[in-house]
Task: structure prediction
Amino acid sequence: MSDSVERASERTVVNLRAPGVEGRVTLSLKRDATTLSVNTVPSFTFDLKGRLIGGFNAGRTYRRTLDHRVVEKVGETRDGGRIRRRRELPPDEKRALVETAYGLARRVEAARQAGTLDVLDSSVPAAVWQPLAEAALPRIAAVDNAALEADAQAFLAVYEPIGILPPDQYRALVLQATQGCSYNKCTFCSFYRGRAFRIKTLPQFQAHIEAVKAFHGPALPVYRSIFLGEANALIAPQRLLVPMLDAVNAAFELVPPDLSGEARARWRAAHPAALDGVYAFVSALDALRKTADEVADLKARGLRRVYIGLESGDEDLLRFLNKPNTAAQALEAVQTLKAGEVAVGVVVMLGVGGARYADQHVRHTTDIVNAMRLDMDDLLYFSEYVDQPGTEYDLRATEAAIGALSAAEMQAQRAALQAGLTFAGPPPKVAVYDIREFAY
Ligand code: SF4
Result:
């Protein structure tokens, strides 16, 4: 069965019994992924290339990255509150998890081929689900740990390490128009340390797009949007950025940028494979190098939202963090972006500067965010400072005798910040940006 098999846009669910598997097997076939579970748990999800994406077992969730690491997350109650413990599985545990997931897939596929699957119930007739299963299961069953390791090597040949994405973009297809961070001197940040910054030429970027498409092959439907990497893709001059976005549009179907509300939702439903638009990080100083008209030109080519690390509205604290811009410049940058009708995602840090800066951080950040006039298309992220021993922040904070705020104190800081926010109309979505959750 070819990749062109039309998969139901809704989830197609079949409950089965398969020889060699104890319990009810649920096969869930979606447009972009396949999930196999036994009595609900364990549950494993694979993309259309057959690669394990993630799973759930014994109260633990697993997320596999494209460079073939597996991150385990487990919720725990500690000191009266819920925390999430994360760890990367060591090689032997990773292999065991992979073998469990693919062992299940192989048994179900063997039974399908032998005609010994016992169908308990199904959301659709056999004539619908069987071709879908025939397209998905052999591909999954053909994968093993060695194949995943080879795929990881192919990934590393196409991509530089992907430092971080905003949480709403974890399902984005990253295209590295630039690599690294052009500034790389914020004291708290180590995402791109030791990596050279460069802007790709248009031919290099076009070749990268082709390599990314070839790498993912049938798995591309798992992605929802395009994220133009990395720390500050909009630093590329307009004369390069415009053809880069044209190249993205030539390679992928994007939702038309002039649609919104119900019209957008209707178009989206009729084009389930289309990507949601283009997203990117931008630094305040580089956003300020664009005019509102230039931003509008990028929007016309699919740029939908850019993410800007405000961190704080307090100028003293920004200097302590060694940010390259002032809070006033961040405000002006947001105004320029919004004048060009591109939405923003503003990131505010919690806990930076400890108790020493806490009052002024809350007061001035509230003022700046209010002045940004964020609306329902925008996002406001609160990102707890995560202690990274050995960073310059850590050294400066130790020198200045600034201690870390506790988790409860950071949450109190968030509450104080939010209490002061006022929005003229429907407010932006406010969400948590936990950098420890990122896995790509
Ligand atoms: S916070 Fe942003 S601008 Fe600062 S070093 Fe990190 S990636 Fe670069």
